[in-house]
Specification:
Helices cover 10% and strands 49% of the residues. The protein is mainly beta and 145 residues long. The strands form 2 sheets. A 6-stranded parallel sheet has the order 1-3-5-7-9-11, with no helix packed on it.
Length: 145
């Protein structure tokens, strides 16, 4: 569950004006101004100018473009978030994430790939060096008792 600090990190999301309730199934494209909460099943594309909240029984199979996302249920597909994604405990994500910030709570299942900004990924790749065979720093804890 999100605490007060986590909610503040979402920059005060706008009004929640769209809810896909439990027992509802939707197949198609959803474009929402403001925030959306999903407690039913959605297959297709979802885009919102603000936050996506997937309840514990909510399921998405498709492509999502949002500012922020809080995932409590199951998502299979792609999520592109310009802000932050939170995978809550007992949530399940399978697919591809692209976000600026990612939080994975203990108990969440994540299977897939994540990229956190193209500039950061390119910079990491060019500066990465293999640690195999790298000299050990003197004074390491190895061998100390």
């Amino acid at each position: 569950m999100l605490g007060k600090k986590d909610i503040d990190d979402f920059d005060r999301p706008g009004d929640l004006n769209t809810i896909i309730g439990k027992g509802t199934e939707f197949d198609g494209t959803l474009k929402v101004q403001s925030s959306i909460r999903i407690d039913g099943r959605v297959k297709g594309k979802i885009s919102t100018t603000d936050s996506l909240i997937v309840g514990k029984e909510g399921e998405i199979d498709g492509e999502v473009t949002v500012k922020n996302a809080i995932i409590g249920g199951k998502v299979k597909g792609k999520i592109h978030a310009s802000g932050k994604i939170v995978l809550e405990a007992k949530s399940y994500f399978y697919g591809e994430l692209k976000t600026a910030k990612l939080v994975i709570d203990e108990g969440a299942m994540f299977e897939g790939v994540c990229s956190m900004g193209q500039a950061d990924a390119a910079n990491f790749s060019s500066n990465a060096k293999s640690l195999i065979g790298a000299p050990q720093k003197s004074g390491s804890l190895q061998g100390k008792k």
